[in-house]
Specification:
The protein is α+β, with helices and mostly antiparallel strands. The strands form five sheets. It has a six-stranded antiparallel β-barrel with strand order 1-2-3-6-5-4. A six-stranded antiparallel barrel has the order 8-9-10-13-12-11. Strands 15, 16, 19, 20, 21 and 22 form a six-stranded antiparallel beta sheet that branches. A hairpin with a 4-residue loop joins β5 and β6.
Length: 346
């Protein structure tokens, strides 16, 4: 039988090999295009701690790793703060496996953002494209690119599942307005870019919600609005310029002792000459005999309700030095509103 079929086998094989490959769907073509155009912008970040033994010999011990992306052609690399936390030295690996020494030039733990700087092979760096619009929509396509464990670039796709999520950050302060996506984000993808269908940066992959540590379809990304505002400050100043009023507040057990479970933040000390003093804010006073008299309790900043320090911190995060805000306080059981000009706090 095989002898009889042999004359037909070669023509059939030739015909099969000559058939065109299955056409790609438009969405597939778009995904492939975005990956090819942006993979070179994604790097692998290694965090190293330097320790000494009893003979004062130094050893480099890997602390952790993650992804990052090229911010500009001047050598700035953006990643998550938790990727570089506790490190003494850092390595950045490019797509062609070039390894570059990097230094940490700025970080904001409250938003889980850090900026590294490399000095060599700057011509190899390809910055990400920033989205011209900060308007995002639920259902919008998302493309997450990372370099987990330095094995090679990986990509996952999904959609924006929700906006305005609140996630407990590495600093203990809630990160608000986070992007939730179902694009699989694994631990090694932390610090990598979250892109839209045009290949523009819309967020930075930060964490997953999973009891097992594996991707469960609930990932979070720091929105590009924070990134565009904070990264230039980290590059220029090494820190984020935050507004304040010139006060200190009470937290924890002291607050509970003074006002119980009522919402608000207790003003402890009002700095002399500060905008808070000029506006008339009152801190704690100690009377003769040691009795502490309560001053003002901040319960609102403009339209934002203030229940605790987390609310106050995130409210101020929406302003800049020089902005004038209305501070709502409880004073002696009554509500008062004071106009305060915010200043830069160190």
């Amino acid at each position: 039988m095989m002898t009889l079929l042999r004359p037909f086998v070669r023509p059939i094989l030739f015909l099969l090999l000559s058939l065109p490959a299955a056409a790609l769907l438009p969405d597939e073509e778009n995904t492939i295009k975005v990956f090819k155009e942006n993979a070179a912008s994604v790097v692998y970040v290694t965090n190293v701690a330097i320790t000494q033994n009893a003979y004062m010999d130094e050893f480099a011990i890997p602390q952790g790793s993650g992804s990052g992306y090229v911010w500009d052609e001047k050598g700035h690399i953006v990643t998550n703060y938790h990727v570089v936390q506790g490190g003494d030295a850092f390595l950045v690996t490019l797509q062609d496996q070039t390894q570059l020494e990097a230094r940490l030039i700025g970080a904001d733990p409250t938003k889980d953002i850090a900026v590294l700087e490399v000095k060599k092979d700057l011509k190899k760096l390809k910055p990400v494209k920033l989205s011209a619009s900060d308007i995002l929509q639920v259902g919008q396509k998302t493309i997450a690119i990372g370099n987990p464990f330095g094995l090679d670039h990986t990509m996952t796709t999904g959609v924006i599942s929700a906006l305005g999520r609140e996630v407990q950050g590495v600093s203990g302060v809630t990160i608000r307005d986070m992007i939730q996506t179902d694009a699989a984000i694994n631990p090694g993808n932390s610090g990598g870019p979250l892109l839209d269908s045009d290949g523009n940066l819309i967020g930075m992959n930060t964490m997953i919600f999973s009891r097992s540590g594996a991707s469960s379809g609930i990932g979070f990304a720091v929105p590009v609005t924070f990134i565009k505002r904070l990264v230039p400050q980290l590059i220029q100043f090494g820190k984020v310029i935050r507004p304040g009023m010139g006060i200190t507040i009470l937290t924890g057990g002291q607050k509970f002792y003074l006002i119980g479970d009522r919402p608000g933040v207790v003003v402890n000390v009002v700095s002399s000459g500060s905008p808070a003093e000029q506006a008339g804010l009152r801190g704690l006073r100690r009377q003769q005999g040691g009795r502490v008299v309560l001053g003002d309790i901040i319960v609102g900043i403009d339209s934002f309700k203030i229940n605790d320090f987390d609310d106050l911190y995130n409210a101020f995060d929406r302003y800049k030095p020089g902005d004038v805000v209305t501070v709502k306080v409880l004073r002696g059981g009554k509500t008062a509103s004071l106009r305060v000009t915010l200043i830069n706090i160190q």
